[in-house]
Every structure is written in C-alpha cells, then in structure tokens.
Write a structure and sequence with these properties.
By secondary structure, the chain is α+β, with helices and mostly antiparallel strands. It has 2 domains: about 80 residues, SH3 Domains (SH3 type barrels, Roll), CATH 2.30.30.40; about 55 residues, no CATH class. It has a 7-stranded antiparallel β-sheet, with no helix packed on it. It is rod-shaped, with a radius of gyration of 41 Å.
C-alpha cells in the first residue's frame, strides 16, 4: 500500500513538472500585474517564495503557455505566464536589400570626387598665367598651330574629331 501511494505521488509530481519548461530560450520578462503582487512559487515544492510587483524584471530560462520558470533567491521558481510579458521585444524586419553595383553612398562619394576634380580643372583654366602666350609662341607669331600650354592643350585635343568628343564637330 505504501509503495502504491509513493508511486501515485511521484506520478503526480512528474506530471505537474512536465508542464514547466527548464530548457527554453533565456530572455528578460517584465511582470505585469494590475496593482496586486504576483506570487512566486518554488518549482519543486510549490511553496510560496515571495512576491513580485508590477514592472519587475525576471530572467526566464523556460516558458510554456501557462508558466514561466526562473531563478529566485537561489531556487527554481515559477509564475503564471499571463502575468509576464516580453521586456525587450525583438522586431523581426526585412534585411536591407542591396542590388548589384556600387551603393548610393559610393555613387555620392564618386560624384563629389568628380566635382572636386572638375572645379580644380576649371580653376586651372581660369588661371591668367595660362592664358598669356609664352615667349616661344610670341616668336612664332602667335598660336598658329602650336600646342597650347598645359591643360588648355588637353582640352583642345579632346574636342577634335580624333578625340571623339564631338563626333567630328567642334
């Protein structure tokens, strides 16, 4: 008779602990109660261990539909799952899609670099010293087919039909 009673108690305890989870994903939960304290019970004995108030945080290491298990004052404790909510919810969003080629940031950097180079080139073209004919050009009677100094020559060569810029037109 004693063995049958012991077996019945063990089966009831085993059935009651199967509804608790001890190996879930650890996460922070916040206690939510409307003005009344939440009773914390010991998992092994189901005795009253203490109370939690609204807004208290617990680090749960197991949750089921009914119960939340966590460590409390050196014991494995539980509270009702209805009295807890996710403290730091994670929003699952779509990853940023990135197409082929350079990103918009890379294109902006490249455009800024090109604009800076263009500004520097235009400053060189506006340099009054480059517009003055050199002594050698004056000796040969002006520019008469002679190459222009510096960047002006490169610009003029780029505008020729051979340079391909104007497709045969200046």
């Amino acid at each position: 008779m004693f063995a049958a009673l012991f077996f019945a108690v063990v089966c009831i305890c085993a059935a009651s602990t199967n509804e608790f989870s001890l190996g879930g994903r650890p996460r922070w939960l916040k206690v939510k109660s409307e003005g009344k304290p939440v009773v914390v019970r010991d998992l092994a004995t189901h005795r009253h261990l203490g109370e939690l108030s609204n807004g208290d945080l617990v680090f749960a290491f197991g949750t089921t539909e009914k119960w939340v298990t966590f460590a409390y004052r050196g014991r494995t404790a539980y509270i009702s799952a209805a009295e807890a909510e996710e403290a730091y919810p994670v929003e699952k969003g779509e990853p940023n899609w990135r197409g082929f080629g350079p990103s918009l940031e890379d294109r902006v950097k490249q455009t800024q670099k090109e604009l800076l180079e263009l500004a520097q080139d235009s400053n060189r073209l506006l340099d009054p010293d480059l517009k003055k004919p050199s002594a050698q050009q004056l000796q040969h009677g002006g520019q008469g087919g002679q190459p222009l100094p510096g960047l002006q020559n490169a610009v003029r060569e780029g505008l020729t039909p051979q340079g391909g810029r104007g497709r045969g037109y200046y």
